Fold this protein.
Amino acid sequence: MENISKPTVFPNTVILQSEGLLKYILDTGVFPREAEALKELRNATAKHPLGFMGAAPDWGQLMALLLKLLNAKKTIEVGVFTGYSLLLTALTIPDDGKIIAMDPDRKAYEIGLPFIRKAGVEHKIDFIESLALPVLDKLLEDAANEGSFDFAFIDADKNNYWNYHERLMRLVKIGGIVAYDNTLWGGTVALPEKAVSNAKQEWRLLSLAFNESISKDCRVEIAFVSIGDGVIICRRIS
Ligand code: SAH
Ligand code: CA
């Protein structure tokens, strides 16, 4: 039995998830309810050398709940990879819903595409093979797009998170939600710099700066959630 650490900073909390707890959560509440198409896509992704980048299924479950609570119809996804969060969104929004999804890596998207097709939800997806920033800027050229999106999931290059945020604060409606993934960056945000591998240092600093800025941003209410690699969920309020 793994030890569950009891933090001193806030007593009634289990510090993040031990591996055993995560397994318990996934086995009990997540995998038994995961759509077959998502399971198949997840298994196909596991064979990819970067398969670990796929969205965490427990986060996927929370994301689906948020989409349902919002009655989300129009969404944005930045960072598709093989499409776990994309398929999840497509399965969750109504039949006439639309996702504008951006990723320069079409090859990875094509790994997930057969499962998206099999699930019969491809018509809800507008995949744009591109870096996200120019696409978001293009959307903003049409005033009709301002405040027209219900939800956005950002799961891509951390150096652009604040650039995405500035654009999303115009594209997503007041009351809509923007969720940012990997905000705990493998836990490195709480480690001293010298304990962090070189490969993770740059995005650790970017994550620290982004998390601090978003925590101070009065345009949003936030929930900083220790699920997957850390997600900051923002609700636009102004
Ligand atoms: N949400 C995905 C995981 C995304 S992994 C899932 O559920 O599986 C991160 C992805 O971001 C990679 O596929 C990478 O190609 C993409 N990416 C990196 N830089 C990007 C950029 N500037 N714009 C859009 N996508 C980007
Ligand atoms: Ca991610």
The beta strands are 74-78, 98-102, 125-128, 149-154, 172-181, 220-225, 231-236. The CA atoms of residues 184 and 190 lie 8 Å apart.
